[in-house]
Amino acid sequence: MKKILSLFSALVLVLSSCSSDDSKESSVFVKKIIEVDKNGNSFTTDFTYDGTRKDRETVKNNNTGETYYMDYSYNREGMIASVLKSTTDGQALVLTELTYNDVSLKTILQTEFINGKKNIKKTYYSTGIRFGNETVTYKTVDVDEDNNAETNPVQGRLTLEDGKIVKDEIIGAQATTIVYEYDTANNPFKNVKGVEALLGNFDLGYSNFNKVKETSTTSSDLPKINSSTYSYDGKNFPTGAKHFDKDGNIKGSTQYFY
Known about the structure:
By secondary structure, the protein is mainly beta. Helices cover 10% and strands 54% of the residues. The chain has one helix at residues 2-26, and strands at residues 32-37, 42-50, 53-61, 67-74, 80-87, 92-101, 104-114, 117-125, 134-143, 150-161, 164-171, 176-182, 211-218, 224-232, 238-244, 250-257.
């Protein structure tokens, strides 16, 4: 009986410890990122949150002092509905609007404001995405700001494994295949609401895992390879990264603060 109680107590202790670790991990949100490119230009991004939702990013060029905002809005289901990039005096630069089929990404409409004109692109995704092992097709078009006519379609196919994109096949004037490799650690944005639905849209700063290698191959060129190495904290979140080209030359670095 004593042995059974001892085993039970040990099990309770282990489960309690795991629960505590999970709780600590789920409370981690990146507060600041500092990036340095190969030319020594430095950029600082500060993040604010509303609960588990990202509220605003403040991005500053530390060399020039130029600053812009990225403001987030959400739909009723708590998914990211829009991201507005603007100057500190309120001038809109880029508006990204997202729609969903249930919790699956359906469309992304991106409007860039340039000298009083709009450069508009829209991407359609196949529906029924459930973040497992699957193939997702998409089509990106240019949209006329006056009559909404869609032109210059570029089609593609995403291959997902365990919820992460491992291949992006772009079918256009020149076919391109991009292969992604990841670590198994926590992405800095892991706990941000809506991240898992964004299908690796890296221009929004999201992926489920940390990308360690990207190999881009076209039908008429040699492969372009970029890679990254990371250092991690005790909760397995990255604290720093170094980025390299195909020859191993450093292209930049990133620091993460929580």
